[in-house]
Write a structure and sequence with these properties.
By secondary structure, this protein is α/β, with parallel strands linked by helices. The protein contains 5 helices and 5 strands. The chain has a single domain, classed as Rossmann fold (3-Layer(aba) Sandwich). Helix 2 runs parallel beside helix 3. The C terminus is likely disordered.
Length: 131
Amino acid sequence: MNSSKILLIEHNQTHRQRLSDILHKKGHEVWETESADEALQCILAGNGLSDVEFILLDLHLPDASALETVNFLRGHLPHVPIVGLWETPDFNLSCVLKELGVHKFLFKTVDIQLLLKTLAAVLPRENPADA
């Protein structure tokens, strides 16, 4: 798998650190934010996030709803794949978010192999031989 630029929006420091560590160890560049507001400010300011290739999004952020956050992300990074992170799944919300372009949903405590498999499945491949 090629190195990717990933935006990780997760309010829980323990989950954020664990996911970031996993992704860094696999050679990915990770921008970490702990709130929707922090992520949105970074995106609006530029801060190199225009070339982000993948978003891991906490769907239970304390400062914004999942719908608000996904709508903002879609407005500013329309082609970037989003994977939602659940603590507790919400089937109705997941149906709405899927319509808005959230590609997959994972538990925040996701197994390393499943996280990497999901990342590989969602990211565009630069070389068809990588498939």
